[in-house]
Structure prediction request, 113 residues.
Amino acid sequence: MDYMSIIIDKIHRRPMTTSKQNPSQRNTHTTTPCKENSSRIHRASSCRNCGGPYPHQHSRCSAIGSKCNDCHKDSHFIAVCRKRLQSGQRQVREINAKLDFESLDREGSRHYT
Prediction:
């Protein structure tokens, strides 16, 4: 071992504690509510139905009465669709249209000549 690794080892090493402490001193810590949980209430987040700022009143949610264009269920938009987010894939719908490439070539040649 080189000198630097010995120093680092000494810095990271913790003294060993013994279990000979007085039992009344062992559990002196009191439990307090987690600050993280209380801060979640005050943190702004997005509505799971409309995607807008939350909290807001249920009656003021813009997604109420709408239908999702992906799963066709009520009261949420496609941007926040849980089915769509779970699958991780976006569905591509097939377009049934025939293109006339000859007419596109003729129209394109007029614009680019």
Notes: Residues 106 and 112 are 10 Å apart (CA to CA). The chain has a mean pLDDT of 68. The chain is about 35% helix and 5% strand.
